[in-house]
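hiii so um. not sure if this is the right channel but i have a protein structure encoded as tokens and i wanna go backwards to a sequence. like what aa goes where. can anyone help
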């Protein structure tokens, strides 16, 4: 049992982005369902499955070593990074173990009970996406490997996609023939019948998702009519590719400033309306390099009455200082934010530890078209960006600094951004220090992408939209309603008295 759980968890971790192979995840989930139903200790099996999956999907954390640039001695750098990696795996083990324990108490796991458990997992992923740790949930498994299935996100979001993956895994688990004194061929014919039904469901889901993706790019004369004040947004994304370990070196600071000046000059020469620069580009109080009439949307820091904020700073009309800003709300645990930091002398695994969170809203008002913003791994929070779209965001912007992490994390970030585009049917612009810097269509397609790790400029033209997907309208409320309905169904069947075996008198 432990070996099966660990192997299934390992393969599940491999199935997640950057691979994005849902067809590999389904048998792993089938094993998890089977262990929950038959293992003597389902909580242990679930813990092994979840912990192993996160060890694989979060192995990029090991790239934090060495931490000597933060003043942490080399002898303790690697143990500290490994402890952080194991901490994430332990939390995943705790969560999946608790879920598996509940599943073990609900045996036999009938369809209504499986739906209850799947909805519970899906909503848990929605909640976790708003907390300080970065999680790569089952809802993200569809990209880049299965865009057709990802199309369902426009109606049900990432939480709904996670629920679908679990139900498909349960269906596959039910296809395994089980003998119980019946004729020899009966278990196999039952399994074959269930397998054909499952295949039909998978095909139908892919057809529905593909249809939703086609609807993401309708002709202008049909469902999408741009507002008069929502003209196309022509911008230049700047990728400086400055190693974070050297970012605060005076020479690198001058280089970044010269690079931003060159980006503004290039945007002016191309006739573009503005420049976008990645997270943390400008230090607190820094003035705009060489003011010009165009717009500058740059990641940076600003000081407020309550402390330092990591923000998107908006410079306009040739002004040297930002006229508006939107602060990062979801801070990196043990990086930008350390619990009870006032009682510690340590400010975290970041050169800018001690950052204060901003307001939850991800909407930035601007002339022409409001934008929905994600800074760093806020990109994993689909609910907040859908809320920004409900309030009027016509396009999405994601800025990040993913150095010193490897290309694997860049690919995960890109997959999540594509999912956000599909959920909201909005074009997305990514601007990251070392990548990914890209332009995405409202169907999640990659329209342009800079080579990672190299300085570059990416001119883009985005068309803001005002239509809304079902997910942008309702968020995860339908999933919550389904959870309540399935819970009531399970409860009613549990308390219903068994049919009487006595004959009527």
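sure thing!! here u go:
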């Amino acid at each position: 049992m432990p070996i099966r759980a660990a192997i299934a968890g390992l393969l599940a971790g491999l199935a997640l982005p950057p691979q994005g192979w849902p067809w590999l995840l389904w048998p792993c989930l089938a094993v998890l369902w089977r262990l929950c139903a038959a293992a003597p200790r389902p909580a242990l099996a679930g813990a092994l499955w979840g912990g192993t999956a996160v060890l694989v999907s979060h192995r990029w954390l090991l790239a934090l070593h060495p931490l000597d640039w933060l003043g942490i001695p080399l002898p303790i750098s690697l143990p500290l990074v490994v402890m952080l990696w194991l901490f994430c795996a332990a939390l995943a083990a705790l969560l999946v173990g608790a879920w598996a324990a509940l599943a073990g108490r609900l045996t036999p796991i009938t369809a209504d009970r499986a739906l209850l458990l799947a909805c519970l997992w899906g909503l848990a992923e929605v909640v976790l996406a708003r907390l300080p740790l970065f999680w790569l949930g089952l809802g993200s498994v569809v990209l880049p490997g299965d865009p057709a299935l990802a199309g369902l996100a426009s109606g049900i979001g990432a939480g709904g996609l996670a629920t679908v993956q679990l139900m498909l895994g349960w269906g596959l688990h039910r296809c395994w023939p089980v003998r119980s004194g019946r004729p020899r061929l009966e278990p196999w014919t039952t399994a074959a019948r269930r397998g054909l039904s499952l295949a039909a469901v998978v095909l139908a889901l892919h057809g529905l998702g593909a249809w939703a993706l086609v609807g993401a790019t309708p002709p202008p004369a049909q469902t999408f009519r741009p507002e008069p004040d929502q003209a196309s947004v022509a911008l230049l994304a700047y990728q400086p590719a400055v190693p974070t370990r050297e970012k605060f070196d005076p020479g690198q600071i001058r280089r970044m400033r010269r690079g931003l000046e060159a980006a503004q000059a290039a945007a002016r020469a191309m006739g573009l309306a503005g420049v976008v620069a990645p997270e943390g580009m400008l230090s607190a109080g820094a003035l705009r390099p060489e003011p010009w009439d165009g717009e500058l949307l740059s990641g940076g820091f600003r000081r407020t009455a309550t402390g330092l904020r990591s923000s998107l700073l908006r410079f306009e009309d040739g002004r040297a200082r930002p006229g508006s800003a939107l602060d990062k709300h979801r801070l990196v645990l043990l990086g930008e934010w350390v619990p009870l930091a006032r009682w510690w002398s340590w400010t975290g695994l970041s050169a800018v530890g001690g950052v204060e969170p901003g307001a939850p809203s991800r909407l930035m008002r601007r002339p022409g078209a409001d934008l929905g913003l994600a800074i760093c791994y806020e990109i994993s929070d689909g609910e907040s960006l859908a809320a920004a779209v409900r309030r009027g965001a016509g396009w999405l912007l994601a800025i990040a600094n993913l150095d010193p992490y490897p290309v694997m994390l860049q690919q995960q970030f890109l997959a999540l951004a594509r999912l956000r585009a599909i959920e909201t049917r909005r074009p997305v612009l990514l601007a990251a220090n070392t990548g990914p810097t890209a332009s995405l269509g409202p169907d999640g397609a990659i329209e342009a992408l800079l080579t990672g790790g190299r300085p570059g400029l990416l001119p883009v033209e985005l068309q803001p939209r005002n239509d809304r997907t079902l997910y942008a309208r309702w968020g995860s409320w339908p999933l919550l309603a389904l959870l309540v309905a399935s819970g009531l169904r399970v409860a009613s069947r549990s308390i219903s008295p068994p049919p009487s075996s006595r004959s009527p008198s």
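oh and Residues 2-179+186-218+477-493 form one domain.
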